[in-house]
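Severity: low
Component: inverse-folding endpoint
Summary: output formatting inconsistent between runs
Steps to reproduce: submit the following structure tokens with default settings.
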């Protein structure tokens, strides 16, 4: 109950002042000149003033508010080390029981880094959780905060200006912990395929663990080297980027007896391999309508360096033209097909026929180039079926099919075969999903037999139109029509010539995305996504090995012909090994080298500045004879000390809620009237004498 005096004047204060000032002046004058009855006049004037001011006694009924205590519990993965989780659970239960004894405290328990809070699994962000717990609480009602953590917190504010109450940190773990870890110091994000990439790394340990350790270096799961590294020193590392696309460089060190965890004994760097400009040699046998289709496509690709020669006239034609006018540039056959043939990633013969422009021996060199890993594309026209066909040269050993001598001159729609619907070169080709396909017709096809490889497109009468084959370490493609330019010119609506031609060229040059049998995996948040390209019907489930060594299967469902995918929600951050059939791949889930595992040794030093600046304290949770040795909890006033040797203080608040108000006017009714009449009557009686 709170009593208070308030005035509720019957007339405005301005008019009350105007009325009473002259009266007060007369009364004061009478007192100064010692007139008789001056004191009675003073009493009458005071009674009149009080009656007009209407004093009221207020009786307020208030309910005191509770102070809010934030109990923040660190549930990050570093808390799973040793007995930290058990210690945390016991400490939280004991603190909740002790806080429940104080009616003046409202306890809010919040956990940071739980399994369903993916954002908190990458790092320990306790102050963000603390801010969320107290966001709706005015500063005057905040009693303080208690953090139960291992001390490895990654969002510690620079000062305690934002904290209006004491912060107490209770640290799990032991003071004598130690750990050995490795990390990349310099790891470029991109590298050129086939070239060396310079990186650096460092092995970190406590000062007493100084020395040297063996570091295993792996690229895409294959161990490349073992180096001897000095603890604490920055070590240079040079690796050769093996593939285009994502590459995983991994460092690993052997665990030391007694160290906290092996999780940070590995470090990875993701390097995107970029291929240097692909070099393509295009040789056109003669000018024709489709010649510029290949040229324009390859010239428009920024990743391709194109060398193009066109045989403008056969060498046997004699019309008196001077030698220096026979060509715009001399055809450097020896330089291209002998000395520098291995510099090219792809050779294209576009409607080319053997007319002694190339010595017969050079075809052997081209076949050998393919066997050793080169790529060859035959864009065939009627010449391929003629007497001067390149199939009648030593190049025959590299060709996937031989001509029958027939050329079919009739309209047809290029169609995907069953194999072509699965093959990454032709799968999902725009316009192929309808019957007839939603593209224009072609009108010429070279007939073949003695086929090898895969027929992915067919033409008139179901005969092969596009063949893809492997020869030794190289690849060969054969497009058995020169009518692709109709798609480029928009005849009957055109067709996806850019998509098709580019895929053919890049498959021949071994782009990983176009491999028929390919297994890839990626981490998206805390989800592992697995994709399988295959020419088979069902690849079966993918077997996954988690960073901890646990295994599980991911079911792969068919998305479209030749493409299967699946995903799984995972709990662990790190490198996952994924296998399906004979294929294996790696995927990293979560942030690369997450701060959560950079340093797992429990510490009191990181939180000490902010805790002490807030008036709080920091101490380790020790084990006593009867359990955990936790500090006592003491309610303190806002201005009092909030920490002691064996206790922590939480501030109480003076805030309250007004529930009801009772008002009693002092000069109301007969009491006020009687006092006023008594004062005025006494004054009149004295003046009457």
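Observed output (run 2 of 3):
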């Amino acid at each position: 109950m709170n009593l208070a005096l308030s005035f509720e004047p019957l007339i405005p204060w301005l008019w009350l002042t105007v009325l009473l000032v002259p009266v007060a002046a007369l009364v004061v004058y009478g007192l100064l000149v010692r007139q008789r009855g001056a004191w009675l006049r003073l009493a009458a004037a005071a009674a009149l003033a009080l009656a007009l001011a209407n004093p009221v006694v207020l009786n307020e009924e208030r309910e005191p508010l509770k102070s809010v205590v934030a109990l923040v519990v660190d549930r990050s993965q570093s808390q799973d080390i040793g007995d930290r989780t058990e210690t945390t659970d016991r400490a939280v239960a004991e603190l909740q029981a002790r806080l429940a004894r104080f009616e003046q405290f409202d306890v809010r328990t919040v956990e940071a880094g739980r399994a369903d809070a993916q954002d908190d699994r990458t790092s320990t962000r306790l102050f963000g959780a603390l801010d969320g717990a107290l966001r709706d609480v005015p500063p005057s009602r905040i009693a303080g905060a208690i953090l139960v953590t291992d001390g490895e917190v990654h969002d510690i504010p620079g000062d305690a200006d934002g904290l209006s109450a004491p912060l107490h940190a209770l640290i799990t773990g032991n003071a004598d912990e130690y750990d050995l870890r490795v990390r990349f110091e310099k790891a470029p994000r991109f590298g050129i395929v086939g070239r060396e990439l310079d990186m650096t790394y460092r092995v970190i340990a406590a000062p007493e663990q100084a020395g040297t350790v063996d570091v295993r270096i792996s690229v895409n799961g294959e161990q490349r080297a073992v180096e001897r590294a000095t603890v604490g020193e920055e070590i240079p590392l040079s690796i050769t980027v093996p593939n285009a696309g994502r590459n995983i460089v991994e460092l690993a060190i052997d665990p030391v007896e007694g160290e906290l965890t092996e999780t940070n004994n590995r470090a990875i760097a993701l390097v995107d391999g970029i291929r240097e400009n692909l070099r393509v040699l295009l040789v056109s046998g003669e000018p024709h309508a489709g010649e510029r289709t290949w040229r324009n496509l390859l010239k428009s690709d920024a990743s391709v360096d194109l060398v193009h020669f066109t045989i403008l006239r056969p060498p046997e034609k004699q019309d008196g033209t001077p030698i220096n006018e026979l060509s715009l540039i001399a055809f450097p056959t020896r330089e291209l097909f002998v000395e520098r043939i291995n510099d090219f990633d792809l050779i294209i013969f576009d409607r080319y026929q053997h007319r002694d422009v190339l010595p017969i021996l050079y075809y052997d060199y081209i076949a050998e180039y393919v066997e050793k890993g080169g790529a060859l594309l035959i864009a065939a026209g009627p010449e391929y079926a003629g007497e001067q066909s390149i199939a009648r040269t030593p190049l025959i050993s590299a060709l996937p099919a031989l001509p029958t001598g027939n050329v079919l001159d009739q309209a047809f729609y290029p169609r995907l075969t069953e194999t072509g619907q699965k093959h990454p070169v032709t799968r999902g080709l725009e316009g192929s999903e309808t019957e007839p396909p939603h593209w224009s017709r072609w009108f010429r096809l070279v007939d073949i037999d003695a086929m090898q490889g895969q027929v992915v497109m067919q033409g008139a009468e179901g005969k092969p139109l596009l063949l893809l084959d492997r020869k030794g370490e190289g690849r060969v493609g054969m497009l058995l029509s020169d009518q692709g330019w109709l798609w480029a010119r928009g005849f009957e609506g055109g067709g996806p010539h850019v998509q098709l031609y580019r895929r053919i060229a890049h498959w021949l040059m071994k782009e990983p995305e176009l491999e028929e049998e390919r297994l890839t995996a990626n981490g998206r948040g805390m989800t592992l996504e697995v994709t399988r390209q295959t020419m088979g019907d069902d690849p079966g489930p993918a077997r996954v090995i988690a960073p901890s060594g646990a295994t599980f299967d991911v079911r792969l469902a068919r998305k479209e012909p030749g493409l299967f995918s699946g995903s799984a929600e995972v709990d662990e951050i790190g490198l996952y090994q994924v296998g399906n059939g004979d294929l294996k791949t790696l995927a990293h889930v979560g942030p690369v080298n997450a701060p959560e595992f950079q340093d797992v040794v429990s510490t009191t030093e990181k939180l000490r500045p902010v805790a002490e600046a807030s008036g709080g304290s920091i101490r380790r949770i020790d084990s006593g004879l009867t359990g955990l040795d936790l500090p006592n909890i003491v309610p303190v006033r806002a201005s009092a000390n909030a920490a002691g040797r064996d206790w922590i203080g939480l501030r109480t608040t003076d805030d309250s809620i007004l529930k009801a108000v009772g008002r009693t006017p002092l000069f109301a009714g007969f009491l006020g009237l009687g006092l006023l009449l008594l004062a005025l009557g006494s004054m009149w009686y004295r003046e009457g004498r």
